[in-house]
Design brief:
Chain A is an all-alpha fold and about 60 residues long. Helix content of chain A is about 80%, strand content about 0%. In chain B, helix 3 runs parallel beside helix 7 and helix 4 runs parallel beside helix 6. The chains are: A mainly alpha (about 60), B alpha+beta (about 350).
C-alpha cells in the first residue's frame, strides 16, 4: 500500500465518524447563523491552505 | 560553507497530511453537537415545607422523545424520586416538590439528576438550595427512595457537556495543540542549536532561529486562544494564574532571544551566543510552564492539585478530534519552519554568489 492510499483510507474512516455526528436537534445548530460561521471558517482555513501550498511551490521553484 | 537543506524539510507528504488533519478537525469539531446536560434549574431556592414547583432547563436533551424521563434529587446521601413529572418539551420539564428535613440532614442543597434512555444520566450539582424553617410532621413531603435507572449512557455521538466549559470545550482542539506545537518546535530549535555548536554549520543556526520565530507564533496564538477561553470560563481574560504568567514569561524569554540575535552584528558570534542562550532558555521555559504551576495553586487542569484531563473531560469522542488536532497543528507549524528555513537558505546562497 503506498502512502497516498494509506492517507486516503485513514481520512475516509475519520470523515465517516464526523458524518455520523451531526445532530439535527442540537440547539446551537438549529438556526441559520451556524452554517454561515462554519462556512466562513472553512473559507479562512482554505485560504491559509492555498497560501501555504503556493508558497511551497514558489520556494521549490526558487531552489531549482 | 555547507548549505544543504535537511531532508525532512523538503518532503511533501507530511505537509499535506497536516492540511487534511486540520480540515477534518475544523469541520468535525464544529458539526459534532454537545451532549445533553442540565443548563439551569429554577427557582434556585425554596423554603422548607412549602410547595415548590421546580423547573429544569436542559441543553440538547430529549425529555419528551425519551418517554421514560425520571428526575431524582440528591441531598446528604439521600435520594428523592419525583413522581408527578410534567414534561413541557425536549428541553424543559417541571415537578412539584416539598421537603421536610430531619435534624440529621446536614447541608441545604440538592443535586438534580435526570435520567432517560436517550440522554443517559445527567446532573447539576448543588442546583437547588432550601431555606430551613420549623419542621412540620403533618405535611406530605416527597419521600426518600432507592433510585434505579435504565441506562447511564448517552446514545448519541457528542462532545461531553461540562459545567463552565459548555460549547467552548471545542477550544481544546486549538488552545492545547498550540502549546504542544510550541514545545516541539522549541525542541527542534534546541537540537539544531546543539548541532550548530558541535559542527559550526550555518544551516543549523538558521533552523534554530527560524524555529524560535515559529514557536513564538504558537505562543502568541496559545495565549490569545487561552485569553478568549479564560474570559468565557473564568470571567477574566487574564486571571492571576501561575500557568498564564509562566507562559507569558516563557514567550518573553524567546522574544529576548530574537533581540539578542538582532543586537550582534557578526554572524558567527551571533550564531554561537544565541545557540548557548537557546539551551539555557528552554530550561527556564520548562520551569515556568511545567514546574512552577504544579507546585502552586492553578486554575488549569493538571496543575496545583487539579485533575488533568479526566475521562469525563476528554472522552473517547473528543479524543477522535483532539489527537488529529495535535498532530495537524504540530505538522503545520513544522511546515512553517521549513518554509522560513528554505527561504533563508536561498537568501544565504544569493549573498554568497554576490
Amino acid at each position: 500500500m503506498n502512502k497516498s492510499t494509506l492517507i486516503a483510507a485513514v481520512f475516509t474512516a475519520l470523515f465517516s465518524f464526523s458524518a455520523q455526528a451531526s445532530g439535527a436537534d442540537d440547539l446551537m445548530r438549529s438556526g441559520l447563523k451556524y452554517p454561515v460561521v462554519v462556512g466562513v471558517l472553512l473559507c479562512i482555513f482554505g485560504g491559509i491552505a492555498v497560501f501555504m501550498i503556493m508558497l511551497e511551490r514558489r520556494i521549490s521553484k526558487l531552489e531549482k | 560553507m555547507k548549505t544543504e537543506i535537511p531532508n525532512w524539510l523538503q518532503q511533501k507528504w507530511w505537509k499535506y497530511t497536516a492540511l487534511l488533519l486540520l480540515f477534518y478537525v475544523l469541520l468535525g469539531g464544529l458539526i459534532v453537537p454537545l451532549g445533553p446536560g442540565i443548563e439551569a434549574v429554577s427557582p434556585i431556592s425554596f423554603k422548607q415545607n412549602t410547595d415548590a414547583t421546580i423547573i429544569v432547563h436542559g441543553y440538547n436533551t430529549h425529555f419528551s422523545t425519551a418517554g421514560n424521563t425520571q428526575v431524582i434529587l440528591k441531598h446528604a446521601k439521600k435520594y428523592f424520586c419525583v413522581n408527578d413529572l410534567m414534561v413541557k418539551d425536549e428541553n424543559n420539564l417541571s415537578f412539584p416538590f416539598k421537603f421536610n428535613p430531619d435534624s440529621s440532614d446536614a447541608g441545604n442543597t440538592f443535586d438534580v439528576i435526570v435520567n432517560n434512555n436517550i440522554d443517559g444520566t445527567i446532573a447539576l450539582r448543588e442546583a437547588i438550595t432550601f431555606v430551613r424553617g420549623e419542621k412540620e410532621d403533618s405535611i406530605t413531603a416527597t419521600q426518600a427512595c432507592e433510585p434505579s435507572v435504565g441506562s447511564n449512557l448517552h446514545t448519541g455521538f457528542s462532545f461531553p457537556y461540562r459545567e463552565i466549559l459548555y460549547e467552548s470545550i471545542r477550544n481544546t482542539f486549538y488552545h492545547v495543540p498550540m502549546w504542544f506545537s510550541m514545545m516541539l518546535v522549541l525542541i527542534i530549535s534546541l537540537v539544531y542549536s546543539i548541532k550548530f555548536l558541535r559542527t559550526g554549520n550555518r544551516v543549523f543556526d538558521i533552523v534554530a532561529s527560524e524555529s524560535v520565530i515559529v514557536a513564538l507564533l504558537c505562543g502568541v496564538l496559545g495565549l490569545t486562544t487561552g485569553m478568549i477561553w479564560a474570559n468565557y470560563t473564568w470571567g477574566s481574560p487574564w486571571p492571576n494564574d501561575p500557568k498564564l504568567n509562566g507562559a507569558a514569561v516563557g514567550v518573553l524569554i524567546y522574544v529576548a532571544y530574537l533581540i539578542l540575535r538582532g543586537a550582534i552584528a557578526d554572524g558567527v558570534k551571533r550564531a554561537r551566543i544565541s545557540a548557548v542562550y537557546n539551551i539555557f532558555a528552554i530550561v527556564i521555559y520548562i520551569m515556568f510552564i511545567f514546574i512552577i504551576p504544579r507546585i502552586t495553586d492553578s486554575l488549569h487542569p493538571g496543575n496545583g492539585g487539579n485533575p488533568a484531563f479526566s475521562k469525563y473531560d476528554l472522552d473517547s469522542h473528543l479524543r477522535l478530534f483532539f489527537y488529529p488536532a495535535v498532530i495537524g497543528w504540530v505538522l503545520l507549524f513544522c511546515w512553517m519552519v521549513s518554509l522560513r528555513v528554505r527561504l533563508k537558505i536561498i537568501e544565504l546562497k544569493k549573498e554568497e554568489n554576490e
